[in-house]
Amino acid sequence: VRNYDLSSPPTLPGPAQSIGHGDRPTIGVFAADVSLVALTETLSAIGYQTVPHRRDAASQLHIVASNVSAVVIDDSIDEPLKWAEKMSAHWPVLLITCAVSTADRLAAARSGVDAIVVKPLDVGELGEWLNDLVGPHRETPLSVLIVDDDDILAHAYGIALENAGMRAIIVTDPLDALQQMTATYPDLILMDVQMPGMNGIELARIVRQSRRYLALPIVFLSAEQEPSRQLEARKWGGDDFISKPVDPVRLAALVKMRADRAIALRSMMHRDSLTGLLNHGRFIERLYQELERCRRTGAEVSLVLLDLDRFKNINDTFGHVCGDQVLRALAQTLSGGLRKTDVLGRYGGEEFGVLLLDTSPKAAYAVAEKIRQRFSEIEFNAKWRKFSATFSAGVSGSLAHATPETLISSADEQMYLAKAAGRNRIVVQRDDKLSFD
Amino acid sequence: LNSSFEGQLAVLRQKFRDRARVQSRVLEGLAIELEQGSAELRCYAEVQLIAHSLSGAAGVFGLSEVSSCASELEDFITDRVGSAKVAAAGRRLIARISQLEP
What we know:
The complex is a heterodimer of chains A (437) and B (102). By secondary structure, chain A is an alpha/beta fold. Chain A has helices spanning 33-45, 59-65, 80-88, 102-110, 123-134, 151-163, 177-184, 200-207, 227-235, 248-270, 280-297, 311-318, 320-337, 361-376, 404-420, and strands spanning 26-30, 49-52, 70-74, 93-97, 115-118, 143-147, 167-171, 188-191, 218-222, 240-243, 301-308, 343-346, 351-357, 380-381, 386-387, 391-397, 426-428. In chain A, the strands form 4 sheets. A 5-stranded parallel sheet of chain A has the order 2-1-3-4-5, sandwiched between helices. Chain A has a 5-stranded parallel sheet with strand order 7-6-8-9-10, sandwiched between helices. In chain A, α4 links the parallel β4 (93-97) and β5. In chain A, α13 packs across α14 (361-376). Chain A is globular, with a radius of gyration of 25 Å. Chain B has 102 residues and is an all-alpha fold. Chain B is built from 4 helices and no strands. In chain B, α1 (3-35) runs antiparallel to α4, α2 (41-60) runs antiparallel to α3 and α3 (64-78) runs antiparallel to α4. The radius of gyration of chain B is 14 Å and the shape is elongated. The chains are: A alpha/beta (437), B mainly alpha (102). Chains A and B meet through α6 of A and α1, α2 and α3 of B.
């Protein structure tokens, strides 16, 4: 886990620089001069490093040397699809364009364009597409619990899954399976049906007795050919049935697809549909977990509560579509400015919560302040004019407030102090003897 | 596929072949009981267990002929086709296993 370093001066805003705390990759940018500055600033605001396309150099080589992860092409440059075709051989390509007819989209698809963002640019949409195209990737591999009494087979499945980048936990006695599940909380269980002591269907019934494991996918792997027996296996909680014998490589592909889908569904259950951040319930759950961890280990976490300034005015003046764009852009700016390990949630309507792990309120303030500056520089496009938005935030730390209730209450109080002091600022709890507002 | 994966799989394949030969010897004794008409229910259960184990595992290691012979034997027991047919299927499986490379 990377700690926030306060020894270096804050990164100044400007094109082709990231906030410096996010772990986001580098994006190659192709745009005409005026659009290039705006686009690199926007990408920088949501945490991406950028490498601008230069007309005076061999652009393709320049981009290659810069180790980019994706390419964004604005249709302000000459022959954007020609560039898309060249770039798409190497990287995912996102096209920002005014041309949105089916014929335009078809031409773009044939040129290898993976995603289109229609002008006027929606920063939230741009950030979400880039998230999809280049990450964030899972930091931990998929974990699969294999339950099979045949030791040789179980290990064959295990090495096939590990070869495909997954983590395999092998149990050859079904009676040990529950204990392993509790210890490892796998993403999927792969189990044989016919096992001595307890068969797979009985084990599935036991697993499903716990609410915690209701959404955990169970895939049976068996030579069972009898349809009624297969049906029974599904009835008692099995999600899939893979018939033995199965080629290990094919097995790994099937398991990965099933686990990826389960994780995507679980993510949807836990996340706010507009911003993609953790929803209120899941954010609070993580807050409780992290404070419990702090109690055990003596670590410190800081909570930042942010509230968009005059958000009702934005909705009333520019419409709710623009309001949603602002919410999504703030989500992207926050994601881009934080570490992957930090916890980020939509706390309420226009309120967001950030839990910075192993971070003092002072360090949390510094991070939030950079994000505040970046966000205030984003230019939003309404139908008839451009506008910007700001937020106010309060920071509190777990050393002074060890319970979830007091930590939230303190951050909330600081946030209202920030509002009262004129908005567009961050206030840290007084207990920390800081006066950064 | 990386060489480490292939290497690990080869080790397991060898373990499987060694185990299959042990199971084949047990199956030999059970086949004699079946041919003599002295087989008890326990004997059928043992044959089924071995056949089930071999049918799944052999297929995973690419030994499809052993796998299909074992599946046939398992089906015969499930379908109660009689001791002579079960014994003959057992002999076919034993013959297949004897053809595996050392």
